[in-house]
Amino acid sequence: MNAPLYTPEILRLTTAPGLDRRLADAMASVEKRSPVCGSRIIIDIDLDADGRISDLGMQVRACALGQASAALFEAHARGRHADEIAAASDAVAAWLSGERAAAPEWPGIDLLAPAIPHRGRHAAIRLPFEAAADACAAILKERG
Q1: pTM above 0.90?
Q2: Which of 75, 113, 78 is CA-nearest to residue 92?
Q3: How wide is the angle at C-alpha 15 spanned by C-alphas 21 and 40, nearest 5°?
Q4: pLDDT by residue (tens digit) across 43-77?
Q5: Strand (E) or helix (H) holding 30
Q6: Which residues contact 66 (CB under 8 A, 6 or more apart)?
Q7: Residue 140 burial (CB count, 10 A)
């Protein structure tokens, strides 16, 4: 029997706070959209002097899986270094594509495992990680 795609845990994450809060003067803002399903995220990032996320905001207009992924990202991103965010983005993509068997070391990301066989849902799950990695890279590039 196949596992349900939208588990109660995934659906609970869609109601997490922080999915519709923008930063007024973010160091970087990045918008990403999934061409497959139209899911969209705008992420605002502030980094401290050491390159760690000090604050973030998001506006998420996505399917349940995209919302759940954004909620997991938002809950665990603060304090992480830009390099960790880039590595997490790569790890999530590799896990979803089957290049990596084990779930990435991001709290709760394994809750999204039922989506692995559904390739059309992968882009929505990757959105917050990719957008944050791009925002962090933009800030670091600007800093030189």
Answers
A1: yes
A2: 113
A3: 55
A4: 999 999 999 999 999 999 999 999 999 999 999 99
A5: strand 28-33
A6: 34, 37, 39, 41, 60, 124, 125, 127, 128
A7: 16
